[in-house]
Amino acid sequence: MIATDALLTDLYQLTMLQGYYAQHMEGSAVFELFVRRLPACRGFLVAAGLEQAIDYLQNLQFTSAELEWLQGTGFFKTEFLQWLENFRFTGDVHALPEGSVFFPNEPILRVTAPIAEAQFVESRLINILHFQTLIASKAARSVLLAPDKKLVEFGFRRAHGGEAGLLAARASYLSGFSGTATVAAGRHFGIPVFGTMAHSFIQAHLNESEAFEHFALANPGNVVLLIDTYDTEAGAQKVVELAPKLAALGIPIKGVRLDSGDLAAHARRVRAILDAAGLTDATIFASGNIDEYSLEQLILEHAPIDGFGIGTHLDTSEDAPYLDCAYKLQEYAGMPRRKRSEGKATWPGTKQVYRRFDVDGKLAGDTVTLADASCEGKPLLKAIMQEGKLVEPLPALEQSRAYAKEQLSRVPDGLRVLKHASVYPVHFSPELRELTERMDIDAELR
Amino acid sequence: MIATDALLTDLYQLTMLQGYYAQHMEGSAVFELFVRRLPACRGFLVAAGLEQAIDYLQNLQFTSAELEWLQGTGFFKTEFLQWLENFRFTGDVHALPEGSVFFPNEPILRVTAPIAEAQFVESRLINILHFQTLIASKAARSVLLAPDKKLVEFGFRRAHGGEAGLLAARASYLSGFSGTATVAAGRHFGIPVFGTMAHSFIQAHLNESEAFEHFALANPGNVVLLIDTYDTEAGAQKVVELAPKLAALGIPIKGVRLDSGDLAAHARRVRAILDAAGLTDATIFASGNIDEYSLEQLILEHAPIDGFGIGTHLDTSEDAPYLDCAYKLQEYAGMPRRKRSEGKATWPGTKQVYRRFDVDGKLAGDTVTLADASCEGKPLLKAIMQEGKLVEPLPALEQSRAYAKEQLSRVPDGLRVLKHASVYPVHFSPELRELTERMDIDAELR
């Protein structure tokens, strides 16, 4: 379902590979993937997408049809394309487990491999890890605000393509959502799927009561009725009127859905209507342009809403539609490397991140240092692949979801706020600073 | 490459279908896809994605594995799932040709089909058409600003998944971009592909000069050198020093790329360095967080830049990451239908859009009316499919691109500005207003 095609990459990866190939540059390279800075409206990030990234690495190879097409572009020599026939990923990967909370300048993935391999996989690795991390990070904000509400990912239609819809469902479930409306995500990732009816179902009937009844008869185990097509409170009244008839058939009304207007006000009135009729078990589910900002407001207002469908704003990460992430060469042939471009300089060398916790188990500070340096704290990057093979099976999505829950429980209050979060302390070790300075001096002398 | 899986949909489509099936609701439904309102920073939109939407409709069917999985969810009766085995799209489609300029409340696609079919395809049709329209509309802004520059889509890595990367390449090419960096988009859509090297290629070498030479020897027809890894002007100087050696080998330096810092200032200095060495044919290509806003600034400053790589901001439509679009039931079993939800009420009935032009051929005003009403102007929706078959072959991407160019040439100046565009007049005909009022009165009486 998630494509592993080798040509899902930038052309420059292949022209660079042609350069490495021509010069017999086969040394080992270390690339690290990290986020340069947080969007203004994020206090922390949640790593996601490793399973798909590893799947990509394990399946990477060029088909003969792809190589034939590349030949036709005129960019490549035949000998180089023949070499690509046997191109596979044979390197090592270290990474943060999915669900890990992390911060700027901390590598979340490190690839160590012959330079052509480590180089080539850049585009699709970023593409996979960036998007799921973006969505898991956004989803976590709603989960922390409303841990006891049912949150359902609702955004497939306005996600950026089919793959984005699937991966948004996965990433938000990882961060603690209860499920998704997207059927294929249910099938491929084992995520619980939710859904009942759209306005069109109501409109296709002569009146709402008939539509509600028809739906209930056809879907007796899943009766959540959409009541805002014409008038929300009148819709709730029709649900109440229908309830005894359905009850006589043994069909319970599980709930109603609101999708427009002042959700808190409607929910209060609808709750009263349902309760007055004894439908106290029927839940109220709300949708319609909800994001963590409106969710926070609804929770502050104590709106009697049991669950939320969160769609477009989640799947597009509307308030921060991308992360400033990069995948950079940090070492080649045993020597650390440093990019010094204005505003985009990197910390050189192969790195590890160590984390400290306070007495309550909350995150207290991280240190980025060289992988072979010693440091106080818990090391975050784990060995995932060695010589192209998994070190151990990746955790199942449910396990990663449990890990994300544990990680989110450790996020300090100052980082949980929706805006103007405090800045988490990420230190750079003396060893790393010293290496960086030494490289700059060497570069000046060269 | 672009998935047509039937389960790329919302669960509620299937639960509704189970309801239609149980009640033998087989009447013809008309659904229309439209955008409710423009994002604040858009003056117009460009329709895109029809080819993939039609491909989806033509290939829609459930596999036995999918049906088996659905059975396991417990939501569906066996008889209904058996009926789904033969489920195909057999309806009619009317649509704006790809590349059409359009405005809020104008249907860009109309589906007329037995209600189950017309209903079911909602989620994926929106998913496909929304995203490409979003990107084509964003890309058109840069094309109108810089019609003589080479604009290349550069955003695969931060596009929201692989499909988004491919479709962003297609949509931006449709709107007039010169090509893409994404290899798979080149292969699948026949779009020109561009790319040379990343900073890592430079860093993997002991110095820039060696990296430049190695790249040129391996890619003699495609020598565009990235010069900002350490110091941009020093990089340009190294290009100049290398040029005679390459010239002696018959290898021309096509250009250089800048990727950081003050692009206008660097471009001026680099242009002077190149020109002073006689490299007047070498072009300057710039990238790095460019969007139409920074592009406008660079053009106002007359920065000597020949082409631009536009990535993240384009592929995520950063300033407007979604469109408020909807696919709504407008007619069922011969009767118009209207949703009246607060803030989301629809114009009922099967509609057509007519466009008028001023003496210069620029867009002068549109009227939305009922499909069977007569109206002044040029009708915009065309018959695309009839009874599940194409009325005529869809235009090739190059033809649609030419059409988009013609359409963009007709956009009035007031709509081309990046912010605070004027509001284009879209009228609703007396027939449509009358129908809407009549339906509201009927609803009150019912």
Observed structural traits:
homodimer; 6-stranded parallel β-sheet; 7-stranded antiparallel β-sheet; 2 domains; alpha/beta; nicotinate phosphoribosyltransferase; TIM Barrel
Structural summary, described in words:
The structure is a homodimer of 446-residue chains. Chain A has 446 residues and is an alpha/beta fold. Chain A has helices spanning 11-22, 50-59, 64-73, 78-85, 115-120, 122-145, 162-174, 183-189, 199-203, 208-218, 232-248, 263-276, 292-300, 312-315, 397-409, 413-416, 430-445; strands at 28-35, 45-46, 92-95, 101-102, 109-114, 150-153, 179-180, 224-226, 255-258, 283-286, 307-310, 325-332, 335-336, 351-357, 363-370, 378-379, 382-386, 389-390, 426-428. Chain A is elongated and about 85 Å long. Chains A and B meet through helix 1, helix 3, helix 6, helix 7 and helix 8 of A and helix 1, helix 3, helix 6, helix 7 and helix 8 of B.
Enter the CATH topology name of the largest domain in chain A. nicotinate phosphoribosyltransferase
Instruction: Give me the Rg of chain A, rounded.
Output: 26 Å
Q: What kind of sheet is the major sheet of chain A?
A: 7 strands, antiparallel
Count of separate structural domains of chain A: 2
In which range does the helix fraction of chain A lie? 40-55%
Most extensive interface: pair and counts? A-B, 110 and 110 residues
Mean pLDDT of chain A: 97
CATH class of the largest domain in chain A: Alpha Beta
Work out the oligomeric state of the chains in this entry.
homodimer
Spatial strand arrangement across the major sheet of chain A:
13-12-1-5-3-17-18
* Stretches with pLDDT under 50, minimum 5 residues of chain A: none
Give the helix/strand class of chain A.
alpha/beta
CATH architecture of the largest domain in chain A: Alpha-Beta Barrel
